[in-house]
Amino acid sequence: MTEPKPPEAATWVPAASDPQKLREWARARKLEVKGIHGKMSIRNSRPSMDEVGLLAEKLNALEWANDPDKVRTTLVDQLKGPLYSAWLYYLQEQAALDRAREEQERKARRERLKQKAAAVAVEYRKRHAHTSGTVVTGLVDLETEDVYVGQSGTANRLTPTLHPVMYELLGGSGPVAQWPTDVCGEVNVMNEYLHKSNFTSASQIPKNSLVFHSETYNSGGTVIKRQTGKPAVNTPHWESRRACKNCARWINRIEAETA
User: Fold this and answer.
1) CB-based contact 215:184 (threshold 8 Å)
2) What DSSP assignment string belongs to 72-90?
3) C-alpha torsion sign, points 183, 189, 192, 196
4) Kind of pairing, strands 135-141 and 147-151?
5) Helical residues (DSSP H) of the chain, grouped into ranges
6) Can you tell me the distance from the alpha carbon of 258 to that of 139, in angstroms, rounded to the nearest whole number?
7) Backbone angles phi, psi at 18, to 5 degrees
8) Among candidates 173, 113, 164, 168, which has minimal Cα distance to 139?
């Protein structure tokens, strides 16, 4: 990061015109500095643990000051001088911690939204007749958090007209599986998403912004177990599934995800 110059120290600390805001700022910075100080070792030569510890003490003094304006002026002077290295070290370390925290939050949000896509699919298929091979697909937009649902079969489209961009996607997708390209749950839910958009081309669909979750109805019956080679009876049930080869092509093209 670009190091700020000492004369800018006055801009690092909020003005004393709002003492409560200044104290809250001092407390937040103090806790961050103490956390960084706790991870330091005696091998840190510049700044030393003592310097970073002293910075935490000065921030604590500002938090509890009876005259925050006076203590603020003293702190600003110290940030320009003896505590300058400790302050820059804090800024650099805290920036790295913030990036790591933001990445964790991004991943957690993505997982939460993937579960949202699964939940809308499960809720929709609860109301559906148990027909073998039926696919119900939930779709979540990671940018807006909007969810959509679709069911396989051209007669089951919530919006009967196939969107022009959906035609474009299907035209470049296959077929590679042994059924028409426009009958899947993924197609019908993507059709709903597109009809809510202003897109006129597949290139306008944001990359890595959509997650699909599909479930299909398995009517059960007798199957041969791979591990034992012996027959076993499966009871009828819904199960999650990946996109078919037809849909996988256009889903990969828009860099979406299946979950």
Assistant:
1) no
2) HHHHHHHHHTTTHHHHHHH
3) negative
4) antiparallel
5) 9-12, 19-38, 49-63, 68-80, 84-126, 164-171, 185-195, 245-253
6) 9
7) -125, 85
8) 113
- Residue 168's identity, in one-letter code, is E
Report the half-sphere exposure of 7 (CA within 13 A, side-chain side).
0
Kind and range of the H or E run holding 149: strand 147-151
Q: For the whole prediction, is pTM greater than 0.90?
A: no
Contacts of 18-26 with C-beta under 8 Å, sequence gap 24+, read 19/68, 19/69, 22/62, 22/68, 22/72, 23/62, 23/63, 23/64, 23/65, 23/68, 26/59, 26/60, 26/62, 26/63
C-beta separation of 239 from 216 below 8 A = yes
CA trace torsion 226, 227, 228, 234 (10° rounding): -60
Structure tokens at 41: 């070792």
The Cα 198–Cα 143 span in angstroms is 15
pLDDT string in tens for the chain (259-residue length): 455 454 466 678 888 889 999 999 999 999 999 999 988 876 666 788 999 999 999 999 999 999 999 999 999 999 988 999 999 999 999 999 999 999 999 899 989 999 999 999 988 888 876 777 789 999 999 999 999 999 998 888 899 999 999 999 998 655 555 667 788 999 999 999 999 999 999 999 999 999 999 999 888 776 667 778 777 777 888 888 899 888 999 999 999 999 8
d(CA 16, CA 205) in angstroms, rounded, equals: 48
Please, which residues bridge with residue 241 across strands? 214
127 vs 212: CA distance, rounded Å: 19
